[in-house]
Structures are given as C-alpha cells and as structure tokens.
Amino acid sequence: MNKLELISALKTEANISKAEAARVVQIFFDHMADAMARGERVEIRGLCSFFVKNYKSYTGRNPKTGEKVTIRPKRLPFFKSGKELKERVDR
After folding, report:
1. pLDDT 10s digits, 5-48
2. b or e along 27-57 (b: 16 or more beta carbons within 10 Å of the residue's beta carbon)?
3. What is the pTM of this model?
4. pLDDT number for residue 46
5. 38 pairs with which residues across the strands?
6. Distance from the first to the final alpha carbon of the chain
7. Domain 43-91: which CATH class?
8. What does the alpha-carbon distance between residue 50 and residue 36 come to, in Å, rounded to a whole number?
9. 82-85 own/partner pairs: CB under 8 Å, 24+ apart
C-alpha cells in the first residue's frame, strides 16, 4: 500500500472527500516526522513504534579506491513492529 492507496481507503472508510483524506494523512505523517526529528519516539499501540538511533563517527573505507574515510555521526529512523502486527502477519 502506498500513500495514494491509503488516502483512497481513508476516503472510503470515513466517507470524506479525497482532499480531506489527503490532508489527514499529510498531517499524520508530518507530526510523526516532526516528533522523530526532535528525537521523540512515536508509538502506535498494537501496530508499531518508530524511534531514532544515534550512530557515532567511525572510519570506513571507500570500496572503489580502498581509501580510508571518516563517516560522520548520524541519526537514523527505525521501525519496530508491535506484537499484534507480528501475529496478524504471521497467520
């Protein structure tokens, strides 16, 4: 399912216009992304949680030249499925 399919499903289930459904989905995604950008955990009980992992700087290697390069510290988003989602998928 992609974003457009999600909007279409919301439109049908909630009996609202496509523009309203698109706005709801966009607000939801924006607030999730903003919370994660602040380093907050986003948890949707029974479904999943999203959180940010911090990685320290390390020395890597350029695969083409073999030259050592310093990889900057970074923060990456992670997804962890909830128990109910795992059970639903593993039927």
Report:
1. 999 999 999 999 999 999 999 999 999 999 999 999 999 998 99
2. eeeeeeeeebeeeeebeeeeeeebebeeeee
3. 0.77
4. 86
5. none
6. 19
7. few secondary structures
8. 8
9. 82/44, 82/45, 82/46, 82/47, 82/48, 82/49, 83/46, 84/46, 84/47, 85/46, 85/47, 85/48
Q: Which pair of tokens denotes residue 3?
A: 């974003």
Instruction: Determine the Cα–Cα distance for residues 13 and 10; give it in Å rounded to an integer.
Output: 5
DSSP-assigned letter for residue 82? -
How far is Cα 31 from Cα 62, in angstroms, rounded to an integer? 37
Contacts of 45 (CB under 8 A, 6+ apart): 82
Write the single-letter amino acid at 40.
E
- The amino acid that residue 38 corresponds to is R
Residue type, 54: N
Task: Say what angle helices 3-14 and 18-37 make with each other, to 10 degrees.
Answer: 120
